[in-house]
Amino acid sequence: MRRIIRRRELVADDARYAGEESAPGTRMVQPVAQFIAALGAGQASGSAAAVLIGPADEVEVLAPHLARLNLIVVEFPKIGEGRGYSQARMLRQRYGYTGELRARGAIKRDQLFFLARCGFDSFDLDPAEDLQASLGSFNDFSVAYQDGSDAVVQVRRRAGAA
Amino acid sequence: MYRYDHIDQTLVNERVAQFRDQTRRFLAGELSEDEFRPLRLRNGLYIQRYAPMLRVSIPYGLLSTVQLRMLAHIARTYDRDYGHFTTRQNIQYNWPALERVPDILADLASVQMHAIQTSGNCIRNITSDHLAGVAPDEIADPRPYCEIIRQWAALHPEFSYLPRKFKIAVTASPADRAAVEIHDVGVRLRRGSKGEIGFEILAGGGLGRTPILGKVIRRFLPEADLLAYLTAILRVYNRYGRRDNIHKARIKILLRALGAEEFTRQVEQEFRAGREFAPSLAAQEVERMRGFFAPPLYQAIDDSTPAIGTSSSGNPAYDAWLRYNTRRHKVTGYRVVFVSLKKHGEAPGDMSGEQMDALAGLADRVSFGLVRVTHDQNLVLADVPQSTLPGVWRELDALGLATPNIGTLTDMICCPGLDFCSLANAGSIDVAKQIHARFDDLDYLYDLGPVEIKMSGCMNACGHHHIGHIGILGVDKHGKEWYQITIGGSSTGPAALGEVIGPSVPKDQVADTIARLLEVYVRERLGDHERFVDAVRRIGIEPFQERVYETHHSAA
Fold first, then answer.
1. How confident is the model at residue B553 (pLDDT cuts 50, 70, 90)?
2. Which of A146, A149, A153 to mutate to test the interface with B (most CBs of B within 10 A)?
3. Closest listed residue to residue B228, CA positions, set B167, B179, B282
């Protein structure tokens, strides 16, 4: 059984992607282009949808449709890919997305602290990573200089700042 | 200088613990070399030709003597008793053992230092003017802003996996001793119409294999918007900078591809859209930060001390040092003293543990316990009472740190080159020695006036060769070391990239080639005040080319 981290706990992966078989209790994640095309053709289902975005996808195209989504999966195809951090920050801050936001791909525990600060709340890590040990990495730092989505650290408040 | 509080100290301590665990996982085989590389690089650790190299951050070049003594301790305990000061105001250790690096970081943390983001594809050490706070020509002290940017950039959750490295420099002086035009982002302090402080923002500068000078993208940015604007620039770069080719990944390539106008439009649009979520810089915070950089308690020294350079002490060596290695201070009775790390026979920028300890003692006695690192790879004692200068000279001279060559031809910038770096094509340190040997007549050097030689062992341009009045670049030809020469570059007033004079020359002819360039200059210059670089600008490179390639040169 494939497992992911969701809100700092190990749970069964409920997502299925193109080419994978769906099973009871799982949901299909559509590529963003397919989701947008279906909307345009009036074929969107009424229930909440799940989409997958790649590093080059613009989060702006999702902005008008966020109410229809309860899972956005952001792909990190290789080590060092960093666009997903900005995608997450924009979805959470600028567009006010409150559903589940998942980071998936070439991710090691060393990135979890930053990813959580940017607004990700579930994580589908590199299969070779030790998931149990990875949970500790959310606590790599107890302080930060920047505001973040993750409220568990002490942030340096700039005097006079809101 | 800035002092850590509980939050700053906790952050560096936790970073040490994190890196210790990453190193342990690598040594235990839990992380592959490919997986460990980005983790160690963002903490300044390279695997070099012979051993690891650790680069330690010296924010905007400012060091306390407690910190300098710790750098000496690290050199002695973990390395071969020396360190190498770099063109980005940092220090590098060339021989630490990988498994002991976490201990070095713990030692650094004990004196409020770290190696965070000294390498890797993230925001690097913030650099600034080495005369900040004492220069007579500055608008305001730039260091409070440097520290504000340093904290904002440290372990930034969104901007830690950028397409490529990202360098920010801040200057407050028209002379721009921080070379902001060759940085990814340059910040120039400006006064607004009501006398308030704001910033001119440049973007897209950089050297490397595609040298480009930065473009002004904002004429005047209000102080409160500094971090919000930087956030906007970084976000546009993080989203749209190229990631498919390491040689085209710097922000300068994005800016060139989009055009400055379109790039600026995107940044401004992002700035407006993201401003409400971005950090705002409150005046109280700037004031609080300014408190850390308040001027030291200068004594009122009357004007009766004879002005520097008006009379001879009767000791020509001291007079030469006074003239070349000290500079005017904004407070009467004080002088800025340069500590030359360009002694003949030594690699430029190298300093032994013993020298560091002794200099720390001197700085405690005569310069309020602070030392600065310049991007020309020298050190500075910024606040020295004039009355102590003869004693300061004697001590520095005894330590081999008083070579009176600041600003002259032998005050060369030089990367470590083949001797250490696995990227280098050339033994830049060897060539530096060759140049020192050839130009050992100080009177000749003084007659030439300011000539900046900058040398890089490969086209990554750590030695900033493009902006040297004379630039030297090591190139590999069929396994042999050759050198390409450029002239007419400058880091300031205005910045310019040098032009290649022609085919590269073999190693043993570098000093001879420089001699020929200088011959043309001496013949053509309009009086003593026309510098080498001014003469090149006026007459062009042809007369220099003719002389260099006219006869026996076996150019290839």
1. low
2. A146
3. B282
Position A153 scores a pLDDT of 79
| pLDDT of A158 over the 70 cut | no
Give the one of B39, B160, B273 whose C-beta lies nearest to A94's C-beta: B273
Name the percent of chain B lying above pLDDT 70.
Answer: 96
What 3-state class would DSSP assign to A17?
coil
What's the pLDDT tens digit per position in A24-80?
889 999 999 999 999 888 776 667 899 999 999 999 999 999 999 999 999 999 989
Helix (H, G, I), strand (E, B) or coil at B336: strand
DSSP code for B166: B
Q: What is the pLDDT of residue B457?
A: 87
Question: Residues A59, A87: contact at Cβ < 8 Å?
Answer: yes
Contact map slice: A 107-126 vs B, CB within 8 A: 108, 110-111, 113-115, 117-118
CB-side exposure of B29: number of CA atoms within 13 Å? 0
Spell out the residues 6+ positions from residue A29 whose beta carbon is closer than 8 angstroms to its own.
Answer: A15, A16, A17, A50, A51, A52, A71, A73
Q: Is A83 on the interface with B (CB under 8 A)?
A: yes
Q: What structural domains and CATH numbers belong to chain B?
A: 6-109 (3.90.480.20), 127-288 (3.30.413.10), 316-398 (3.30.70.3340), 413-548 (3.30.413.10)
Provide the residue type at B257 as one letter.
Answer: A
- pLDDT, one tens digit per residue, over A105-128 is 999 999 999 999 999 999 999 999
CA distance A86 to chain B (A): 6
CB A145 to CB B274 under 8 A?
Answer: no
Whether residue B319 has pLDDT greater than 50:
yes
The full set of domains in chain A, from first to last, is 3-155 (3.20.20)
Provide the residue type at B317 as one letter: A
Question: What is the C-alpha to C-alpha distance for residues B142 and B134, in angstroms, rounded to an integer?
Answer: 11
Query: Which residue bears the tokens 């850590």?
Result: B4
φ/ψ (deg, to 5) at B363: -65, -35
Give residue for tokens 């949970």. Answer: A135
Q: Does A99 touch chain B (CB under 8 A)?
A: no
Provide the residue count of chain A.
162
What pLDDT is recorded for position B416?
A: 76
Q: How confident is the model at residue B221 (pLDDT cuts 50, 70, 90)?
A: very high
A127 touches chain B (CB under 8 A): no
